[in-house]
Specification:
- By secondary structure, the chain is mostly helical.
- The chain has a single domain, classed as Four Helix Bundle (Hemerythrin (Met), subunit A).
- 73% of the residues lie in helices and 0% in strands.
- It is elongated.
Length: 154
């Protein structure tokens, strides 16, 4: 887990110097790959929690606690992962231009996700299944609202 975070952090830092500059194609592809990796890992950690909240799989408080910690850390990487504006490059992405056209709105959605992730960490620490279910729902809603406004429809 630490190695994975280190790799993502290094990739994000590689783009830090190019945020205000035009990206070459390789930089843009790496930027998109990095942010898609962060989001893929968020989905991978969120999926079982959503299934638990909907009673599709058995509720597992220990797994909620583990995934909550991961989601909290990943959500804090989102702003950095989207810092590089890749619109001028030929890259395949579901990110909408509005991300960079309305950065304050996007930043607010990211902050809501960070707050919801931290809320899930707190709920998991209580061991209260009801609180965890509610916090899973809040995080899912936060993720969904960002998808609604800033992601190309599937």
């Amino acid at each position: 887990m630490i190695r994975g975070k280190f790799v993502v952090a290094c990739a994000i830092l590689a783009f830090a110097g190019t945020v205000d500059a035009e990206l070459n194609q390789d930089q843009a592809e790496r930027a998109v790959e990095t942010r898609q990796s962060v989001l893929h890992l968020m989905g991978w950690n969120m999926a079982p929690l959503g299934a638990m909240a909907r009673d599709r799989i058995e509720f597992d408080a220990a797994r909620v606690e583990t995934n909550a910690a991961r989601l909290s850390a990943l959500s804090q990487m989102m702003a950095d992962a989207f810092a590089a504006d890749t619109r001028a490059n030929d890259v395949t992405t579901e990110a909408l231009d509005v991300i960079w056209e309305q950065p304050d709105d996007f930043a607010a959605k990211i902050q809501n996700t960070i707050d919801a992730g931290n809320g899930l960490v707190s709920a998991a620490a209580t061991g209260d299944e009801g609180a965890m279910r509610e916090a899973i729902g809040a995080l899912g809603s936060s993720c969904g609202s960002c998808h609604d406004d800033f992601r190309l429809d599937d």
